[in-house]
Amino acid sequence: KQEVTQIPAALSVPEGENLVLNCSFTDSAIYNLQWFRQDPGKGLTSLLLIQSSQREQTSGRLNASLDKSSGRSTLYIAASQPGDSATYLCAVGSGNTGKLIFGQGTTLQVKP
Amino acid sequence: NAGVTQTPKFQVLKTGQSMTLQCAQDMNHNSMYWYRQDPGMGLRLIYYSASEGTTDKGEVPNGYNVSRLNKREFSLRLESAAPSQTSVYFCASRDRGNNQPQHFGDGTRLSIL
Questions:
Q1: CB within 10 Å: which end of chain B, N or C, has fewer?
Q2: How far is it, in rounded angstroms, from Cα A86 to Cα A71?
Q3: Phi, psi for A54 (deg, rounded to 5)
Q4: For residue B21, what are the contacts with CB-CB under 8 A and spacing of at least 6?
């Protein structure tokens, strides 16, 4: 059974820092891995999707990497801003039905 | 450009009452999903519909039923609500293709007393 873990559960950094969020999964037979952002009281917003054949994806200040063999993904946020404060969730897609298995998230606070 | 719309946004029920959560998407997506989000548990899949006319169980289907009414709408029904079903419920949709991202609604916050 696929299990997804995110460490740390919470992170607080000063504005301007570069930071890395971690996601690990137990079964390397995945279709893709998605990173989402969730603001308090809101739904999830898709940030990046990495296909199983890819090593990384970039969008603006965000860069996500995928290492299937070791069961790991990282989300790199460059030059963090207070507006980046949110919960970040990773999710593994393990079949062609699009079903996702989620980690529990990392809650990020960026202090001005 | 509404995306995925969920109604209602908030609801309080008494144990044993029934309720249907509504979800509609305007992106012509094939697949739709219902998740619940609980503190410390993350999001867990309840039911999904890979295409119009099909539905399948996810990780935590007990106590729920679903209907894919048409391509746009996917409803979740609680026949006899229990306090353990207090949660935030999210609906999502996805376009055809294995590597399409899921798009989420803003959720329904449901409390069962």
A1: N
A2: 24
A3: -100, 160
A4: B6, B7, B8, B34, B75, B76, B77, B78, B89, B91, B108, B110
All residues of chain B having their beta carbon less than 8 Å from the beta carbon of residue A101 are 45
Nearest CA to A95 out of A23, A1, A30 is that of A30
- What span, in angstroms and rounded, lies between the C-alpha atoms of A86 and A91? 16
Predicted local distance difference test score (pLDDT) of residue A96: 75
For residue B84, pLDDT over 70 is answered with yes
Of B41, B42, B101, the CB nearest to A49: B101
Q: How confident is the model at residue B1 (pLDDT cuts 50, 70, 90)?
A: low
How far apart are alpha carbons A46 and A57 in whole angstroms?
13
Query: Which of B65, B71, B27 has the alpha carbon at shortest distance from B53?
Result: B71
Give B106→chain A minimum CA distance, Å.
Answer: 4
Please say whether the beta carbons of B48 and B58 come within 8 A.
yes
pLDDT score recorded for residue A1: 87
| pLDDT tens-digit series, residues A32-54 | 999 999 999 889 999 999 999 99
